[in-house]
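SAMPLE LOG
Freezer: B-3
Tube label: C17
Construct: single chain, 349 aa
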Amino acid sequence: MALTGGPHQPMTEKELTDDWFERALTETGDSTDPDPEDEGESSSAESDDIGEAASDAADDTPASDADEETLFDQGFGDALSEVSVPQLDETSAPDGFSDVDFGLDTDEPDFDEAVESALPRIELGVDGLDGMIQGGIPERSLMVAIGSAGTGKTTLGLQFLNHGLENGERAVYITLEETRERVVNSATEKGWRFDEFVDAGDLAVVDVDPIEMSTHLDAIQDELPTLIEDFGASRLVLDSVSLLEMMYDDQARRRNEVYEFTASLKAAGVTALMTSEAARDTAYASRHGIVEYLTDAVFVLQYVRPDDFRETRLAVEIQKIRDANHSREKKPYEITNEGISVHQQANLF
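STRUCTURE (predicted):
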């Protein structure tokens, strides 16, 4: 994917580092992509091919290339040195279940006592899911939605931004999977006015080729806080962090690069939501088991397939939210033409 949403073309160093964010705000290329599945996840084979190509490209790129030019007259590389690093904590996967059904429960979900905090809170904009969070998400939190293909991760990200845009906020959507045009079209098909928000300058949709991003990641993440601050965004979505992780074969380097990138998002001062593929053997961990330890909130989106072959359902669970109490129940949800709706009063049993 090119930065302007058109077909992929090789890019020079200058083309990548010269106002890539500003160019994404003003240019809209024609999309020639075929119509993929609703969530636009890349196949495993495609991801593996990208990972090998990116690894070769990264090895051949001189270390000085990323610093050759800055995106602004005044750089923001020193911002990361002042970032408050999130503390790692352990997460655990709850036991699975076999018999699944839906039933109505008139009792309110059980919540812990409220956490006293002066942190401002915001709503995600998802019916039912906001009700599972007592008091709302603390502003400037870094969140991740983990799920397999088709669980609605991209829809959750679009819905999260739309809620802020409808309330007068500005937002940024960074995609490593889709073109700029397709992201806007997907949102407008659900009745969200992304085309209007883009035209009004309230929404920036930036499509970045993952290979080019990996080879110039240092330059991008150093300038990201300034780009977002200058744009005035309060919400950001990255779809998806899994493609960034796949760029690196070495686990130590992968962990370091993802840590540095999440630190740049924290420095940007926005409330950010990343999407991530689930691990192949469990729904409760990301593919590489990294981002859930670097984020403030983790939402698990999963399929529920009962043993008696009844209809497959979707369920959401909040694995953690720092500085906010929340329901620890698994709740069913559905993806409609209007987005995601969580059935807070329905139970899985």
